[in-house]
Design a protein that fits this description.
6-stranded mixed β-sheet; alpha+beta; flat
Length: 702
């Protein structure tokens, strides 16, 4: 902790005295000796040096960000609430490593100085904002703008920049996700496979799920957020030359570091003492490299200014010291546009995160009630507005509505029969009369049955609640007794999430069977005597994915005479001959689901993939042919789709691999609000449960 840290947490930004680095920065921009700013605040400098300093330099810029932790199971970035974020001004000398033929670069720090300039606590969604003097922003930007490549050099790769690189675009200034309307990734294609290798299966599957089916003017918030995410959640080790790699024997480690410094200094004409503190085991990266400038493999960069961050959190309970959950901190602020963008700090696995930071405002009357599932209301609006739910059948009636014509392109027509999936956060009202306890009981009706079970209480489920007291994070996990009674927690006590009565993991908890759960909320007094019961609400749970079967045949003849089977579980090579012939592929497939939403038979691979055959001559033929490749459910009972589609790989198309996949999607959804559901008032078509089995063939001219 520096001498400035404590008062800065208590003072307004313009009242805090300048740090040494801030004084240096302002002096470099104004020509006024830095010693004259010693001990002065921005407000005092503004008054004392009026008409000597551009007043715009003495304004403030807000830098905001979010502390998150990656869920290893889903790949989602969950917010980290109530973490303490220290904002630091850092001046660091760096050794830049630009491996030949590599699209990225790494930096090795030495001679670094850091001063804490602000301390802030993240909100329940992990968000934080701090005010930074405009002259600091100008100092950092001017340093970079005055040097070729520096403005883009210190930017970390995003998912969007990596996808652009894989599509053949040069690595350079990251234009941000808005530069692309959206990315279409087809399973089985080379782009999809390469993206999986670099970004991981979870991110690539989410990108594939959020892009297809977009229509003019529709929202693309979900994929834009994915494209803006850091491409590499953890640092990637640089591919150092063999002679620079760390020795196995610890006893020789310092001797090895000294030899590395000596070699680098000798090669670059530097004094060895200029590289004191350089350790190639300590690095930042990867970063984007210059794309149009030839850069040597090793480059020293002296005294680079930046804003960095350190985050701590109390993770071992009240009264325990906070633990550092983030400290990898250089170049977290994306400066490429000239304006500080939002910062994402990826915390270590020890951090405490939450999946529900945005909670609904739950209105309560004098009776117990179930009010929200996630952020979606369980109370329908007055007619003629469309309802959100059918409380009897257990379906949400707005998401993933049917398309009566069976095509993907047409508009949906409510009501939907969308079941729920994954983890449900249920909010309700329990502060009724003298209620001290509450419980939720349900009847269960299995799929295909009309006979519900007896009322059964939810037991064994617990979830975290958080409360910040004096900068310390407190935590409690509500626990039920054997009869399902939980203690009533007064919303006025400030525990977060407020008014949650149940967090139900419908996949991994003991209560996980697919089917209809009709749930009622009961409240009781201190002796657990029943006081009142809510109106029941149904929830159909369906975590299944559609079942897909398919087969294929191929022939050199358009009528498929002499056709041969395609072994879809093996590597298939079709020899078209030295004088290539047309190859005809016929795919027979069938999809069955509990709650089918849509099906697409997709092609990919070389030259854009195979082409539907025959080429339609009229609009009606085009519609008929499209119907062999895709379908959207027409009504609640439309849950099976068998079809046959024929394709041609023309003799003029390139040799190589051609892929086919059946993308089958359930209409199940989750209302937690991590997608565009709240913004669209739940009139949207999300993708949560899906499968995409695929096969590929290779054609050669031998």
């Amino acid at each position: 902790m520096t001498k400035h840290e404590k008062p800065r947490a208590q003072l307004a930004p313009d009242k805090a005295p300048l740090t040494a680095s801030q004084a240096t920065a302002l002096a470099s921009l104004t020509g006024i000796d830095a010693s004259k700013f010693k001990g002065l605040s921005v407000a005092e400098i503004s008054s004392e040096f009026r008409w000597q300093i551009d007043p715009n330099l003495l304004l403030f810029t807000q830098v905001c960000g979010q502390v998150v932790k990656q869920d290893p199971a889903t790949g989602n970035l969950d917010p980290v609430p109530y973490a303490t974020v220290k904002v630091e001004e850092t001046v660091c000398s760096l050794f830049g490593f630009f491996p030949v033929g590599n699209p990225w670069t790494w930096f090795f720090p030495f001679h670094c100085t850091t001063e804490v300039v602000a301390t802030v606590t993240t909100d329940p969604c992990g968000n934080f904002c701090v005010w930074v003097p405009r002259f600091m922003v100008e100092w950092i930007l001017r340093f970079r703008l005055e040097r070729i490549c520096y403005l883009e050099l210190f930017n970390k790769p995003t998912v969007g920049s990596v996808i652009a690189y894989l599509q053949g675009h040069p690595i350079g200034p990251d234009p941000g996700p808005e530069a692309q309307a959206y990315v279409t990734l087809k399973p089985g294609t080379p782009l999809y496979q390469k993206a999986e290798q670099l970004l991981g299966t979870q991110v690539v599957r989410q990108l594939a799920a959020t892009a297809p089916g977009k229509t003019f003017g529709s929202s693309n918030i979900g994929q834009q957020a994915l494209l803006a995410r850091p491409a590499f959640p953890t640092a990637l080790a640089p591919a150092l030359p063999k002679e620079f790699r760390k020795p196995v024997n610890n006893a020789n480690r310092e001797q090895h570091h000294a030899a590395v410094r000596s070699t680098l200094a000798n090669n670059l004409g530097l004094e060895v003492n200029q590289l004191e503190g350089l350790n190639l085991a300590h690095y930042y990266g990867p970063f984007l490299r210059c794309y149009d400038i030839l850069v040597p493999e090793w480059v020293p960069i002296f005294e680079v200014p930046d804003i960095s961050f350190t985050a701590t959190q109390v993770v071992n309970g009240p009264g325990t010291p906070p633990v550092v959950i983030y400290s990898s901190g250089l170049f977290d602020v994306p400066w490429g546009t000239g304006i500080p963008s939002n910062v994402t700090l990826l915390a270590s696995p020890v951090a405490i995160s939450t999946t529900n930071c945005n909670t609904p405002n739950v209105p309560c009357g004098d009776v117990p009630s179930l009010e929200y599932a996630g952020l979606m209301p369980l109370v329908n609006p007055p007619a003629p507005a469309a309802p959100y739910i059918n409380a009897t059948t257990g379906f949400a009636t707005r998401p993933n509505p049917p398309h009566p014509g069976g095509t993907l392109a047409e508009a949906g027509v409510p009501p939907s029969t969308a079941p729920y999936c994954d983890t449900l956060q249920i909010y309700g009202c329990t502060m009724v009369d003298s209620a001290a306890y509450y419980r939720l009981r349900y009847t269960y009706t299995a799929p295909g049955s009309i006979t519900p079970s007896a009322l059964t209480p939810f037991t064994g489920l617990t979830w975290p609640l958080y409360l910040e007291v004096g900068g310390n994070l407190q935590e409690q996990w509500p626990v039920s007794d054997a009869s399902g009674w939980y203690p009533v927690i007064n919303p006025a006590d400030g525990w977060f999430p407020n008014s949650m009565v149940l967090e139900w993991d419908t996949v991994n908890s003991a209560i996980n069977a697919n089917g209809l759960y009709t749930i009622q909320l009961e409240v009781a007094d201190g002796s657990k005597s029943l006081l009142a019961t809510s109106t029941p609400v149904g929830f159909v749970i369906d975590n299944s994915v559609p079942a897909v079967t398919y087969s294929a045949i191929w022939s050199f003849n358009s009528d498929l005479s002499g056709a041969q089977p395609v072994p879809i579980n093996d590597c298939v090579v079709i020899d078209r001959g030295v004088t290539p012939q047309d190859v005809y592929i016929q795919v027979t497939y069938s999809v069955t689901a509990n709650h089918l939403r849509s099906v697409q038979l997709r092609v990919g691979g070389c030259d854009g993939g195979a082409t539907p055959y025959p080429t339609p001559a009229t609009p009606a033929e085009a519609v008929a042919q499209l119907a062999t490749e895709q379908h959207w459910y027409e009504d609640a009972g439309d849950n099976t789709f068998p079809n046959v589609a024929t394709y041609i790989i023309s003799h003029s198309q390139l040799q190589g691999v051609y892929s086919f996949d059946v993308w089958a999607i359930s209409r199940a959804f989750n209302p937690a609000g991590s997608d565009a559901g709240p913004l669209d008032d739940w009139n949207y078509s999300p993708i949560y449960k899906w499968t995409d089995p695929s096969f590929a063939i290779a054609v050669v001219n031998a």
